[in-house]
């Protein structure tokens, strides 16, 4: 685990939370566009899809 991995985790949390907030405020009217924007933001940050999925699975495992 590199020093930037923690920053990527935090950035991914922010991207996810902002997308969720937009979805909530718009009643999911723009959900496909929001999801696409989240994906592009993750790409720009260098966050891979598999890192996202691993993180989601870890959160489910902790419940």
UniProtKB/TrEMBL annotation:
Residues 1-63 are annotated as: Disordered. It comes from the Bacteria. Residues 14-23 have a biased composition (Acidic residues). Residues 1-13, 24-54 have a biased composition (Basic and acidic residues). This is Antitoxin. The lineage of its organism: Bacteria, Bacillati, Actinomycetota, Actinomycetes, Kitasatosporales.
